[in-house]
Every structure is written in C-alpha cells, then in structure tokens.
Amino acid sequence: MTVVKSPLAEPARKTVGEALQGALVDLIDLSLLAKQVHWNVIGPRFRSVHLQLDEVVDSARLASDTVAERASAISVTPDGRAGTVAKTSGIDTVTDGWVKDAEVVEIMVAALDACITRMRERIQTTADPDPVTQDILIGITADLEKFHWMFQAENV
Amino acid sequence: MTVVKSPLAEPARKTVGEALQGALVDLIDLSLLAKQVHWNVIGPRFRSVHLQLDEVVDSARLASDTVAERASAISVTPDGRAGTVAKTSGIDTVTDGWVKDAEVVEIMVAALDACITRMRERIQTTADPDPVTQDILIGITADLEKFHWMFQAENV
Amino acid sequence: MTVVKSPLAEPARKTVGEALQGALVDLIDLSLLAKQVHWNVIGPRFRSVHLQLDEVVDSARLASDTVAERASAISVTPDGRAGTVAKTSGIDTVTDGWVKDAEVVEIMVAALDACITRMRERIQTTADPDPVTQDILIGITADLEKFHWMFQAENV
Amino acid sequence: MTVVKSPLAEPARKTVGEALQGALVDLIDLSLLAKQVHWNVIGPRFRSVHLQLDEVVDSARLASDTVAERASAISVTPDGRAGTVAKTSGIDTVTDGWVKDAEVVEIMVAALDACITRMRERIQTTADPDPVTQDILIGITADLEKFHWMFQAENV
Amino acid sequence: MTVVKSPLAEPARKTVGEALQGALVDLIDLSLLAKQVHWNVIGPRFRSVHLQLDEVVDSARLASDTVAERASAISVTPDGRAGTVAKTSGIDTVTDGWVKDAEVVEIMVAALDACITRMRERIQTTADPDPVTQDILIGITADLEKFHWMFQAENV
Amino acid sequence: MTVVKSPLAEPARKTVGEALQGALVDLIDLSLLAKQVHWNVIGPRFRSVHLQLDEVVDSARLASDTVAERASAISVTPDGRAGTVAKTSGIDTVTDGWVKDAEVVEIMVAALDACITRMRERIQTTADPDPVTQDILIGITADLEKFHWMFQAENV
Amino acid sequence: MTVVKSPLAEPARKTVGEALQGALVDLIDLSLLAKQVHWNVIGPRFRSVHLQLDEVVDSARLASDTVAERASAISVTPDGRAGTVAKTSGIDTVTDGWVKDAEVVEIMVAALDACITRMRERIQTTADPDPVTQDILIGITADLEKFHWMFQAENV
Amino acid sequence: MTVVKSPLAEPARKTVGEALQGALVDLIDLSLLAKQVHWNVIGPRFRSVHLQLDEVVDSARLASDTVAERASAISVTPDGRAGTVAKTSGIDTVTDGWVKDAEVVEIMVAALDACITRMRERIQTTADPDPVTQDILIGITADLEKFHWMFQAENV
Amino acid sequence: MTVVKSPLAEPARKTVGEALQGALVDLIDLSLLAKQVHWNVIGPRFRSVHLQLDEVVDSARLASDTVAERASAISVTPDGRAGTVAKTSGIDTVTDGWVKDAEVVEIMVAALDACITRMRERIQTTADPDPVTQDILIGITADLEKFHWMFQAENV
Amino acid sequence: MTVVKSPLAEPARKTVGEALQGALVDLIDLSLLAKQVHWNVIGPRFRSVHLQLDEVVDSARLASDTVAERASAISVTPDGRAGTVAKTSGIDTVTDGWVKDAEVVEIMVAALDACITRMRERIQTTADPDPVTQDILIGITADLEKFHWMFQAENV
Amino acid sequence: MTVVKSPLAEPARKTVGEALQGALVDLIDLSLLAKQVHWNVIGPRFRSVHLQLDEVVDSARLASDTVAERASAISVTPDGRAGTVAKTSGIDTVTDGWVKDAEVVEIMVAALDACITRMRERIQTTADPDPVTQDILIGITADLEKFHWMFQAENV
Amino acid sequence: MTVVKSPLAEPARKTVGEALQGALVDLIDLSLLAKQVHWNVIGPRFRSVHLQLDEVVDSARLASDTVAERASAISVTPDGRAGTVAKTSGIDTVTDGWVKDAEVVEIMVAALDACITRMRERIQTTADPDPVTQDILIGITADLEKFHWMFQAENV
C-alpha cells in the first residue's frame, strides 16, 4: 500500500530519506544528551551552562520534528524510537552522575562537532535530489554551528 | 565528594531516588513513543490524533524535567540517556512504519496503562520517606490518567 | 460494556466516584448561585461585590470541570444536568429579585461554609482509596476557604 | 422600592423582561447540557466533539451573562437559579452516562434547534418595545445558528 | 466642493447627521464629566467609584470616535470642539471642587439618564433613513444603559 | 438530501441566500482587487496607500468568511470559486501593471461605491425575511462606508 | 473641611495649583482639537495625518490625567469641565467643517506652540515650590516639543 | 518609464517573472478553493477538515503575498485579479454545493499535487537566474508538501 | 579595596548615600506594613482596601530596588536587612491582629505622610551633590503622594 | 469578636497557625536576605548570581503571601512586621557591605538549609490537623529544595 | 591559539570570512545612514518616510548581528567598529543637516542599490565554499531588494 | 530657511545642541563597541558577558534615538554618520579579534567611565538653558551608571 505519494522519484526518495533518518536520530540524541548534562552539571558556571543547555534542547527538539515531518512528506517513515536512537546515533554517550561545568562544555563541543560533520555531508548528498530538504538541513546546520561556536568560546 | 546535601536521610534518599529514576525513564520513553506515532499515524482521524499526541509529548517532557530535577534536589543523579531509556523503560516499543489511527490509540492506551500502574506504586513507596516527591508524582499521575481516559473514550 | 478501565479497584472506584459526583453538583450550584447574586446585588458595595462574585464563578466553573473529568478518568460518569443539580446540591437556594450587598455577602459565607464542610469530608473519604483525587479536592478546598475568609472579612 | 428606573415604559418592560428571562434559562441550560456531554461523550470523534462542545459552553455562558445584565438594565430581576433552570428550560434533558459521539451531535442539533425557534420568536416580540434588546438577541441567534449548522454538517 | 459622496440621499443625510452630531456632543461631555468626578470624588467608596468612572470614560471616548467617523462617512462634518460641547450638550454640568461619592453616583445616574433619553429618540429617528447608523446608536445605548443600571444599583 | 435544516422557511431562505451569495462574491473580489493594487501601486503616497489597502483586504476577507458561513447556516451553499467571482462580481476590474497612487485611490472609491450600493439593497431585501442576516450585512456596510469616506478624503 | 493634607505649604500650594490647572485645561483642549481635525482632515496626506493626530490625542489624554491627579495630590481640586475648557484654554479654536491636510498641520503647529510656551513658564514657576510637579511638567513638555518638531518637519 | 530597476539582467528577469506569476495564480486559487470547501464540507470529519483547511488558506495567502511582492522587487508587475486567476490557474475547479469530507480530502490532495509539480519546475527554472527567488519558492514548496502528506495520511 | 569607583566625589557620595539608605529602609518597611494590613484588614471595604494595598506593595518594592541599586552605583553598599529595617525605619509600626478598614486607611495615611516628609528632605539634600539621585527620589515621591491623596480621599 | 470562623477545630487551628506564622517569618526574611545579597554581591559570577537571587525573591514573596492568606483563612492573624521578622526568623543574618559571589552562594545554601529543615517539620505537624495547609507547605518546600540544589551545584 | 575550530577548511574559511566581513560593514553603515535621515528628513512625506526608515534600521541591525555571529561561527573575528565602518563601507555618505523627503528616498535607493550589488556577488562567492553562509546572505538580500522596490515605487 | 522653530532662544539652542550632539556620538559608539565585544568575547564567562552586552546595546540605541530626536526638536540637526562617530567619539576603540572575558569587562568599565564623565558635564551645562534636555540626560546617565557598577562588580 502506498500511503503517501512522494514528490521525489525513487532513487532520490531513498537517498534523501536516509539523510533525514540520520539527522533525526542525531538530533533526538543531542536533545537527550543536553538534558542529561542540564540535570547533572556542577561547578561555578552551573546556572549559565544549565540555561544554555535548554536552548540546545529546544532547538534540537524543534529541528527533529521538522526533519521527521519532512521524511513523512517524501513518503519515508521516520524512526525516532529509543532503541533506534541508542543504536544508530552518531554522538558519543556520556558517563552517569555529576559532571563538572568545564567538562560539560567539552562534551557539548564534541557532540555538536559530530552532528555538524554528518549534517554537512547530508547537505551535499541532498543538493541534487531534493533542494527542499537541503534547505531545511542548511537552516538546522546554521543553528548547530552557532551553538558550536558559543561552547568553544567559553571553553578557552 | 558530596556535591548536594540531601534533605532526606539515607534509606529514604535511596527509595525515593529509585522511584524518581524509574519515573524519569518511563516519561522520556512516553514522549519518544508519542512523537514516533505522531509522525507515522495514518487514517481518517490523522489530524485529531496527530494533535492529541503532541499534548502528551508536551506533558511528558515537562514531567520528565520536573522529575529529574527533583532527583538532583535530593542528591540522586538522574539518568535520561538514550541507552538507559532503551534498556529500562516500562513501556513496550512499537513497530516501525505507518500505523493506522485506531491502532495508535490502542498503543497509547497500553503505554499510559503501563506508566500509570508503575506511577501508582511509586506514590505508595514515596509517601512516608518523602511527601514532597509523592506530591509531584500525584500531579503527574493525574495528567496521565486524564490522557488514559481520553484515548480510551475515542477507542470505543 | 466497559468504556474506560478504571485505575482504581471496585470499592475504591465507588467511594471516590460518589465524592466526585457530590463535589461536582455543589460546585455547579455554587457557580449558578454566585451568578444569580452577581446580577441581582444592590447597595453601596455593588461594584466590589459584583466583581468579587465573578471570581467565585470562574473558580467554581474551573473546579467543576476538573472534578467531572477526574470522574471520567476513574470510569465514573459525571452528572451535571440542571435537574440533578437542583435536586442534590448541598447549598441552600436564594430568593428571587434584588438582594442587598450585605445580604449577598452573608449568602456567600453560608454557601461556601456548606461546600467546605462537605469537601473536608470528601478529603477524608478519598485519602486511602485515591490520593490523586484527594489532591485535587485539597486544592479546590484551599480556594473555597480563601473566598470564605474574604467574604467573612468584609462582613464585619 | 424602585431600585432601577427602566428606560422602557411598563408594558414594554414586561414583554421584554419575559423574553430575556426565557433566553437566560435556555442559555444556562444549553451550557449545562453541553458540559454534560463534553464529559460523557465516547467514540472515535471524541476529541473533536469534546473540544467543539466547549466552544458552545463559552458562547452560551457569555450570552447568558449579557442577557441577564440586560434584564437588570431594564429593571427586570433575572432568575438563573438551578431550580428555575430545571423547571422552565425549553431544552430536553439527556440521559445519564456515556453517550456515543454521533448521538451527542444529534442531541446538540435538537437542543440548538429548540433554542433557535424560541430566540426567533423573541426577536419578533422585542422589535417594537426595545430594539436594543432585540439587537442583543439577534447577535446571540447568529452564533446559535452557526453552531446549529456545524453540528448538522458533521451529522451527515 | 463635495468632498465625500454620501451613501444617503439628501433629507436622510440631514436627519441622520443631526442625530450623530447630537450624540457626539453628549458623549464627549459625558467623558469630560466622568473624568471631572473621577478626579474630585471623595468618601469611603472613593477607589471603587474612581475606577468605575474610568470605564465610563473609555466607553464614551470610543463611542464618540465611532459616532464622529460615522458622520464623516455620510458626509456630515462632525463638530466636537470644546465650545460646541459646552454650548450644546444635553448633560447638566457639575459644581467645582470635591464631591462626595454618593453624590457622584447620583450625578452619573442623572447624566446617563439624559444621554439615554436622547439616544433612544435618535434610534427612532434614524431607523428609516439609515439602519447602519441606527445599529451603531443601538450598540452605544446598550452600554449606556448598562452603566445606568450599575450606578443605580449602588445608589440604593 | 437535506444536509442542513434552515431556520428560515423557503421563500425567505431563497431571498436571503441570493443576498448572501451576491455579498460573498463582491467581498472576495474586493479583497483580490485591493491586493492587486497593494502590489502595483506607485507614487509618493506608495507606503501609505500600500498599508491602507491591506486593512481593506483584512476586513473584506473576514467579512466574506462571515457571509459565507451565514449562507451555510441558513442551508444555502456559498460559491466563492475563482470562476464565479470573475463572472458575477459587481466590481469593475483594473488594468494590469503599475498604477499611480492617486489612480489607486479612485479605483478603490469606485469599487467601494459599487459594493455599498448593492449592500444597501441587500439590507432592504433581508430586513423582513431574516433580521439576523440583515444585522450582519449592516455591520459589514458600516466598515465599507468607513473605508469609502477615507479614500474619498484623501482624494481631494 | 480639609479633605487632603497638602505636602506643600500654602503659598507653594497655590502657585503650583495654578500651574497645574492651566496645564490641565490646555491639554484637554489639545486632545479635543486634535480629535476635531482627526475627523475633518482631507487631502492626499489624509491617512498619515489622521493617524498622527491620534498619537497626539493619546499623549494629551494621558498627560491631562497625570496633571489632574497631581493637582488632587497637592490638595487642589482640578477643573476639567467643558465650560472651563472652552473659557480658559490657551489654544485657538478651529473653524467647523473639512480642513485640508496642510492646514491641519499648521493648526497643530500653532496649538502646540501655544501649549509649549505656557508649559515652559510653568516649569519655571514650579521649580522652587515643588520639584515633583516640575518634573511631571518637564516630561510632558518633552513630548509636546517632539510633536511640535514633527508637524513642522512635514510642513516644509 | 522604468519604475523599478531590477536587480536581474533582462533574460533572467523574464524567466523569473514568469515563474513568480505562475506561482501567484496557483496560490491565490489554492486559497479560494480551500475556502470554498471549508464552507461546503459535510460529514463526520467536518470540524477537523474545516479547521485544517483554514491553515491551508492562511499559508497560501501569506505565500501569495510574498511571491507577488518578490515579483515587484524584480520589476515584474504581478497579476492576481479574479479573471486572471480563473483563466490561468493550474488547479482544477470543484463543483458547487455540499461536498463530503472524504471527497474534500481527495480534492485537496489533487490540488496540492498540481501546485507542487509546477512549483518544483519553478525551483529548477529559477536556480541559476535568481537564487533569491528560488529560496522563496523552496520554502513555499516545503509547506505545500507538508499539507500534501497530511491530507494523504488521512485519506487512507 | 575599592570595589566600585563612584561617579561622585567623596562628600557628595556620603550625603547622597545617607539619603538613599534612609529611603531604602522606609520603602522596605512601607512594603512590609502594607502587606501586614493587606492580610489583616476587615470591614465592609475589605476587598477594595485589600487590592489597593497590593498596589502600594508593588510600588514600594520596585522603588526600594531602584534606590538600593542606585546606592551600589555610587559605591555605597545598601543595607536592607530585617534588623536594620526594624531599627531605623521612619514609619510607626502597627499592632498585631485584625484591623478595621477605616483604621487601615488612617494607618496608611500616617505611614505615607512620614515617608513623604523624609523624601522631600532627601530631594533637597541631593539636589546639588547628585541630580541623578534626586531625579529618582522625585519620581518615587510623586507615587507616594498619589497614594497619600487616594487614602485621604477615601478617609472622609 | 470572632471575625472569621475557622474550618478547623481549636487545637488544630492553633497547631496549624503556629506552623504558618513560622513559615511566614522565614519566607519574608529569606526574601529580604536574598535582596540584600542581590545588591551587594561582587565577583566574576556577579551577573549570574544577581539574577538567580531575584528568582528566590520572587518565589519567597509569592510563598509568603500564600502562607499569610492561608493563616487568615483558618482565622489566625498573620504577623509579618519588620520587628517580628527581625526577632523570630530562623535564618542567620549576613554582615553589611560587599560580599564575594562564592560567599553569597554559601550564605544562600545555609539560609535555604535552615528554611527547609523547619518546613519539613511543619509538613509533619500539619499532616493530621490540616491536609490543606500541608499541601501548601509541600509545594513551597519543593521550590526551596530546588533552589537549595542549584546553589550547592554551583558551589563545587 | 585556535579559539574556535571552523567547520570550513582553510581556503573556504578565508573566502567566506571576507564575504561576511564585507556584508557586516555594509549593513552597519546602512543602519547608521537610515537613522541619520530618519532624524533629518523634512517635507510633506516626513511621517511616512520617518517610519519606513526605522523598518530598514531594524532589519539591518538584525542582519548585521546574524552576519557577525556567522563569522564567529566559522572562526573569523568580525570587525564592526566605527572606524572600520567609516573606512570600508560600500555605501556613499550623506551631507549633514535637514534633507527633503524626496531626496531621502533617492539616497535610500542608491544605498540599497550599492548593498544589493555587493550582496549578490557574495551570494556567488559563497555558494561552493559554504552553502550555510550563502543561505543567510540570500535571506538578507531578499529583504534589501524588497526595501529597494518600495523606495523606488514611491520615487515615481 | 528655518525648518523648525526652536523653543529655545539662540545662545541656549547652541549650548544645548552641542551637548546633545556630543551625547549622540558617544552613545552610538558605545552601542558599536558593545556589539564588537559581544561578538568577539571568549572565556568561561562568555555567555553571561555576551548577554549583558546586548542589554548595553539596547539601552544605548534607545538613548541615542531619544537624544537625536531631542536635537531635532530644538532645531539642531543631529549627526550620527559613521565618519562623524569615528572622528568625534569620546570612547577609546578596541583592538580587532577575540577578547578575553575579563578584558571585555575592563573595556566596558573604561568606556562607560568616559561616557559618564562627559554626560555629567552635559547635565551641568544644560541645567539653565533647557531643563527638558537636562532631564533626558539625567535619565540616560542613571542607566549608564547602573551598567558601570555592574561591570565593576564582576571585575573584582
């Protein structure tokens, strides 16, 4: 049964679908990771980092919703289940328990770095088959690179 | 190193901490599950169910944050990482791909049912050691049971 | 046909259901009574009492909705029809026509008094079978007792 | 004692007063009926109908307040007590318990039908004695007829 | 020079124009009078009456603007200058200096009474020549009569 | 199949339905025309006229929705399709391309003039069969005549 | 009877009271004048001037309220009645009927000029006896001089 | 007379202008069509589809304004008159009268399908001559494809 | 250690610092006193006075914050501790327990009177050494004198 | 004279009244202390701590109002006067003058610690005599313990 | 020291950095120029142009912030100092003193023209090395070209 | 040509005009400087300082607009062009590139110090010739001195 007729022809639909599914998993994991350290951060910069992390969470949640609904729109069923995220995310996990503020900042720089590298590949991959998806990924990457700069700037 | 001095004595802290950690994992998984079917639901009731699921997501996200920060407040480090959620959640997962609206409603009834049963046990467990935590869990359960009724009412 | 599966076992469901149905009727009648004197009050304190009564109306309407939806959530069908309210309310009615402001204040003190006495009994009754319902009734009682104090304070 | 000097001469005041009192009772009963089925509706269209009914409640509550205050303004004391509503309403009551969504829609069509018929008579009756009251009733009837169409449209 | 082409034929334009000009002057004077006693009221009900008067001011200012722009729309130039208001208003003036609260209420009842009597005549006069203007005057009269009731109700 | 039971008896329904269908087409065309010159206006008064036209668009869109839903409410199916508007509108079209600001003002005066004349006829026609529809048309005409005055006032 | 005990000793109270009473009358008259030309302005700049005048009205109404309440606060009863304004205002009146936009601008420049000259004298007069009143007059003058510049700037 | 100097050289201006004019007509027609079925839809899903269609209307109206103003910005005069829309739209019209909800959903899927196919061609056409216009069309297409998915998802 | 370099030279800094510290203590005490009678007022004017007192509280809290931060800005450390307020406030305390409404009004008149007298001295004292501080004190005094008038006006 | 009839019998009223009076004094003192260090904090974390302290102030002010009005509602007159706070607060005072940021954090941890210990005792004390008061104290304690964790987390 | 790790490889980082620095200077200068003529414009269109210029200022300020933060995000330090702007801006300066409205419009057309030409070059330059930056510049150019059209349209 | 008639006589106009022009340049440069370091700040306090600087930018931009429009109001043409700012500002520039957070704080303390010294001279200079301008400068200085304290407080 074809539920949704894709605006993309088959090979394009598959390529773009994989890019979107990869982005979805990375963004959900980014939001879970940022919440994890939002709750467990300690140190003199606690309040500043705690608030900053919620901005990442809000941004990643919004982006994951946009990406998943874009997948549906091209007739690719998005998979954002906990098990799928745990297995296929491109972001390293973090250890349990309290984490010092400076370490949190390093964790976020590394996580954003991983996301950005993969997002930039997806921007390349989707350019030809679907400029609409590419435009969505470009906008999300701009936000990720802005957070990336900010965490690095306070890591000096 | 004792980072945070708990307002609870040791056995109480442990009991309440386990209740909160269990609640945290269930609520995160509930939010991920509700988003998953929010994106993949199909059928004549698509729009109504799609919107209703986002109310569950908003409620579960807010509750998970409250629960995790309550854990920190009693000196228990919350664990909401993707791997932990995938391994320890009390909610059954869902299969990949499009899901018919009536089936989505059934999935949500079952998921809320599982959450509620466990939450009601936690309300019993925390009553003596920490009425402050108990009050938080009571408020969250009221919301879960309201969603539970609503999905059942439309499942007739 | 069981439409909604109750989170409460049978004797608890019945006890809590009766408490909620009683609260529902009292709160609807309180909102109708407060509107009745809101429209018919006269005297130098007209404007102050007229505005104050609408705060009672808003609060009672909101509470009646919460209570009725709680009943549905535990699989008890709420009954808020005009006839049921007229027959089973715990609040005395008021005579038709204009009412002097001081008399309105006395009427409200008496009506709130009746509601509060019954609500406090319901708080006792529901404590064991359903702390979730009890918590809702506690919150409503706090508001009723606040209005009760205010009308008494201006009745000196 | 004449509390409020009416802007209308005596026979007009009486005619218009009766129209307003009749409208008041119908509108209060409509709001109670709509809440009753708002809480007790079941079936696949639960959420849609549940939300739609609250729009009727809001509209009927606002209209009943306007009508009652208009009565006071022409020196007719409005009577919106539970007993008066139960005895004199022009709307049929509904049976207790869960009600299927399609049946709820039929109940609302019938209730609005009854209100509209009586409102249109009141528009005729008040035209000469008081165009100000007539204008208020015209506005309320427009809203009732809009709801009437909508419930019929979904009843096909 | 005909600046604005009236949607009304000549005799109608003149009749309606006079009604609107009369209403304009009364409404401006009502707003000035209400402000005058808003500033000069004294007595135990000071705060209540002070706030109530500003509601009259807001309503009268809005109504005067609507009425004046309606005049322009039918090609009648409105005249709301201080001198014109002082000379042609239908409302009695008030003495200078502090005024007791009960006296303020009486002054407002009398002023609203005068406005309403004239407004009701204008509703009659404009019915045939211009139902659009009549509808505007009906709406304004409804508000004036509501204030009229309220001041009387607190004057008992 | 009778989908919606009309509150009006047959001849009235037909008369009022024609008035509403005529009003609908005129109002949609007015909104399209105002947008057309909103985009194509040039001259020193560009910005002022450009902004003013969007107020006409907002008002005409809102009015067309009210009128169409009123038609549905009396069981007359409204027809607002592009072809119907193009064929049956009472407003003259405008030539393609840039239009000087003074000319835009003249175009709007003429378009509003045509709408108003027809609306005033509809107010007469609907008075007896349906005062509810008449009241809606009166309100819309008041707004059209206000815009009519304003464009004329700046056309001097 | 001394109703309000002034924070100022007697000669100061009298001097400051006269300044405030003068300011009150000028500001009320300014608001009436601005409304008068707001309704009667014609010409290509109609819309721009029409909107600008309402900013003057809002500002003058707010300022008149501040000034009158300041008078009451120093135990001077303010007099803002229509007759007092007509007799004692420092602003020239305007002729009845339509007024061309450029002429409206000139009228406003002249009216503001008259207000400002008198306000600056009051700033001098109140400096010693009451810096609190002076500060209020300084703030009002800043706004008047801003409007004064703007009307002049568009009068070139 | 060259009113607006285009930022594009001539052949580019012409190509991009045609793309924008085509998009404008499609989007206006989409908004008229969606309103037409918004008013005439019937069936159990009436309320859900009725509300959903207004989201399409809002989106299409906003997009049509953006597209038309973009045309002006590159010195191409947009043409959104009723006649032009009726003659050149790429969307099939709909029959008059009530339309069943399931049929409405099919109509919208087909209309959006037609719009999307043409929009994707315009994205190709404008890529080289004007990436600024292309970016606008990409954003609009993303929204259309989202609506397209949603109507299909509820059509299963 | 000089933490903050004052913009004022030494004798000025000391004089202004004392004025600000005195104002701070009076304003905090005023806010505590107003809350105390806000909670303990009784009598027919309960509601009116209860609400009015919260306006004093809001105003005094805001003013105390402004004054304390102004002290810091000129390098004077503000002291608003409970003990300091209890010892150095210029306002008389009030007896414990319920207080009749008329008495509350008298208490507020006396408290504001004391504050105003001292504020006016501070306005004199700070004029030369620091017009910036003086301007802040002038603004606060204007508010205090407005409350002073209002409580006196209702004390007649 | 019994002003307010308590919903509690006498021994319960006394026990609960003492708990509320104790909570009131602690919360007022907490708000004064937090403002004191809000103004006097220095060091690299100045801005972060300065903002965080105002969140404590807002929370403590709101809680003190709730607690005091709850006391009135059970017929216990609350005492929140400066002298009472200075004498009976359970929080240690702070020295005058600038305070380093790290020291401010320690002061807040200690102050919150003292409040929480006493609040938890009051939760025990009020459980039987008045679950309504207990529920209020539980909510306030949850907030205090959240601040307690946050200040500790940044004190590492 | 590498503060921020760029997501771009070296030659790309340099090319894109120069584009962003150039855009930053142009946008800051555009905001200063628009403010300059916002303050100095005179003539009959004063108010319209004065308001329109603030929309340019808001847009240019927002764009300059986006561009500068994008530079930081790719590890290029932005330079927006007054001296740098004065020396390197691509926009012609304006003479001191009052400027007639028509001349202001011409100045803005020329300034926007210069910005747009350079922005379109930057869109070309950045396409390959960084589509993320290109997308930002495309969005800004769309806004500039919209303003460009509007000022030209009113310059006819 | 005298465009604007100044409310000040000639020598006063010149003195006050110079004060305003000096203030304008300083405030624009302050806003540019604060943005420059807002973009280039690095170090652990990055986020806190980054946000704080935008508050300075908002305040300085608002103040510069007030000051420039005040100049126009007294018939002095303000000059806020990039070149003028670069040449005549009283604030030292900053070096290009990343700046450590502690250094940014020092830069801001120095810049605010320079502004404040000059502003306090302008307050003296304008006192006699124009208390209206003086009052504006006093308000701006209060804000600058508040920022001055805050940056110093975090520089310890």
From TrEMBL, chains A, B, C, D, E, F, G, H, I, J, K, L:
InterPro entries hit by this protein: DPS_DNA-bd, DPS_DNA-bd_CS, Ferritin-like, Ferritin-like_SF, Ferritin_DPS_dom
Superkingdom of origin organism: Bacteria
Gene3D superfamilies assigned: 1.20.1260.10
GO MF terms held by the record: DNA binding; ferric iron binding; oxidoreductase activity, acting on metal ions
Transmembrane segments: none
Keywords tagged on the record: DNA-binding
Matches recorded under PANTHER family: DNA PROTECTION DURING STARVATION PROTEIN 1, GENERAL STRESS PROTEIN 20U
Family of this protein: Belongs to the Dps family.
Protein name, entry field: Starvation-inducible DNA-binding protein
Natural source organism: Actinacidiphila yanglinensis
